[in-house]
Amino acid sequence: MSWESFIARRIYFDKDKSREVSPPAVRLAVAGVAIGLAVMILSVAIVIGFKNEIRNKVVGFGSHVRISAFSSNTSYETPPIQYSPYIDSLLRANANVARIEPFATKPGIFKTDNHYMGVVFKGVMNDYDWSFYKQHLVEGVIPHLSDSAASTDILVSQPIASKLQLSVGDGVLAYFVDGERARARKLNVVGIYKTDLADYDNLFVLGDAEQIQQINRWAPDQYSGIELRLHNFDKLDEVTSALYQQLMIKPDFYGAHYYTQSVRQLNPVFFGWLSLLDMNVWTILILMAAVAGFTMISGLLIIILENTSMIGTLKALGASNRSIRRTFLNVAVYLVGRGLLWGNVVGITICLLQQHFHILKLNPDAYYIPYVPIELNLWYILLLNIASLVVSMLMLLGPSYIVALIRPAKSIKFE
């Protein structure tokens, strides 16, 4: 062990109760680092959790990538595209594609004895992945779809069920416009879901795609679009660009052209809003790092001034300014390390409590989530610890140069 480390340990672990300045200053410095790191851990965990929750809900309602007909029509009454064996094989050849799900959408009006409401009927196939809706199922079961006949089972959202006063087992009349006339269907509510994503909960009803194909007189291989779910969200832009290039020049059998869009392109408002959260996090991280750094600076200065006589003695014995600076920087490492330890304990404990017990609630009408979401990532926590240590030590380099101003002839007599 070097003599600088030895003296640093003696200063840090000194239990002399006669000191009146150092202990409060040290506790303040440690508390500043601990609070700063705890707030940074909470900020990053909350933002990551919030972004993942919203992203998963938006993707759950649709998919990562959607292929539809190239059209200027922005409504849910879209021209069909063909889901042919060739398109199926082309999509499955992409290793990033996990699931391929054709769908059909059609606006309509749902009517009960006393109420009516405009909705969008989304029809899916019998092998549709219902895992997202199972997570948010409030009552009833998932619709049962078969190949033999068009199913009348539907899944409605809780807001729609509330406005139409529908319960599981109730029937509802659905009216769809086909050309110049309306077509009616009697549908049965078998399940009710709620995701708190009001933009979608107030709009979508799920059922059998064959119902829409029959109403629109489409061929069995015609759909409103094809939804693709990917293995990795990070490959979203890569897959979208590749499929766009492959499909844009290949019209289907009926003459429709394929148009590929990512979930970011389909929902720019949501993803633009989530991107703004990153700026808020960076602001918090910078402010907390500054607070922790300045409290450490004040603590180190007090410790240096308190040990002026010792510094003068060390200089008289031949110690260089660099060695003495290293000694007090070693003391700072102990203090920062102690602060980081308590910051991790406090920050991670609060995150775990919120993650398991949902103590802090949110208004789902405003935030789309009923509670503050938490996503703990060990790599981010490790990076925050390393960054906090590095930033704190860099900020302390300047104040440590005060050692060079201390003169042995005067400081040895300093009380």
Describe the structure.
The chain has 415 residues and is α+β, with helices and mostly antiparallel strands. It folds into two domains: 3-58 and 270-411, no CATH class; 71-256, no CATH class. The protein is built from 15 helices and twelve strands. The strands form two sheets. Strands 1, 3, 4, 5, 6, 7, 8, 9, 11 and 12 form a ten-stranded mixed beta sheet that branches. A two-stranded antiparallel sheet has the order 2-10. A hairpin with a 2-residue loop joins strand 7 (171-178) and strand 8 (181-193). Helix 2 packs antiparallel against helix 10 (268-306), helix 2 (22-61) packs antiparallel against helix 14 and helix 12 packs antiparallel against helix 14 (378-400). The two termini are 30 Å apart.
Number of helices in the DSSP assignment: 15
Indicate the radius of gyration in whole angstroms: 32 Å
Q: Tally of extended strands?
A: 12
Mean pLDDT, to the nearest integer, reads: 87
Shape: elongated
Distance between the termini: 30 Å
The domain tally reads: 2
% residues in beta strands: 15-25%
List low-pLDDT spans: 17-21
Instruction: Give the biggest beta sheet.
Output: 10 strands, mixed
Structural class: alpha+beta
- Helix coverage percent: 40-55%
Order of helices and strands: HHEEHEEHEEHEEHEHEEHEHHHHHHH
What does this entry show, briefly?
This protein is α+β, with helices and mostly antiparallel strands.
Summary keywords:
415 residues, alpha+beta, 2 domains, 10-stranded mixed sheet, two-stranded antiparallel sheet, 15 helices, 12 strands, elongated
Write the layout of secondary structure elements.
Layout: H1 3-12, H2 22-61, E1 65-69, E2 81-82, H3 85-92, E3 97-111, E4 116-124, H4 131-135, E5 137-140, E6 153-157, H5 158-164, E7 171-178, E8 181-193, H6 198-201, E9 204-208, H7 209-216, E10 222-223, E11 225-230, H8 236-247, E12 258-262, H9 263-266, H10 268-306, H11 308-316, H12 321-357, H13 364-367, H14 378-400, H15 408-411
Parallel strand pairs: 4-9, 6-8
Antiparallel strand pairs: 1-11, 1-12, 2-10, 3-4, 3-7, 3-11, 5-8, 7-8
Helix pairs in contact: 1-12, 2-10, 2-12, 2-14, 10-12, 10-14, 12-14
